[in-house]
Amino acid sequence: MLGAKQHWPPGPPLSPGLPLALTLLVLRAGWAQEGTEPVLLEGECLVVCEPGRAAAGGPGGAALGEAPPGRVAFAAVRSHHHEPAGEISNGTGGAIYFDQVLVNEGGGFDRASGSFVAPVRGVYSFRFHVVKVYNRQTVQVSLMLNTWPVVSAFANDPDVTREAATSSVLLPLDPGDRVSLRLRRGNLLGGWKYSSFSGFLIFPL
């Protein structure tokens, strides 16, 4: 009949497994006349949250609208060709040290050992660039996760005065995991100025 109001049938009851922050739009509509599109009369929004989860938010449990905790990044370089006595970067098997730290957000990089210690669990990106100077020997540099060599790079051209071993990798780390560079072959007796080692947290797990 013309002018008769009709109502949408009630929806099914909410189940306990609905996602966090489910938004329900409750609409009441009527027909202006038979055969026409429904006309919106009024509406309201209802936000339903899971119990105990109202404050949960982004990665790492940060509240909505807040930056996640655990910003981690480091960058270290070699500003001199040769190192103080006691450091062993110039021999096979030795750790490669860096004397200048440009960035150490989160405090994970230890200049004394030349290594990075993960402060939080997450996926990290690492990159290294190790230069050999006036050295005809092949140099192999490995990025170590604790005692395990993950990736290696080589500089093996005997006819150039400067060459670099460069590589990068993504790694999942747990708190306390140690990442460092080690000279697995050759030596750096000619020096390694302008070498660099850097990394950052991509996202926490």
Automatic annotation (TrEMBL):
Keywords: Disulfide bond, Glycoprotein, Secreted, Signal. GO terms for biological process: maintenance of synapse structure. Residues 1-32 form the signal peptide. Its main location: secreted. One of its GO terms (cellular component) is synaptic cleft. InterPro entries: C1q_dom, Cerebellin_Synaptic_Org, Tumour_necrosis_fac-like_dom. Residues 67-205 form the C1q domain. It holds the Pfam family C1q. It is found in: Secreted. PANTHER family: CEREBELLIN-3 (PTHR22923:SF2), CEREBELLIN-RELATED (PTHR22923). This is Cerebellin 3 precursor. The lineage of its organism: Eukaryota, Metazoa, Chordata, Craniata, Vertebrata.
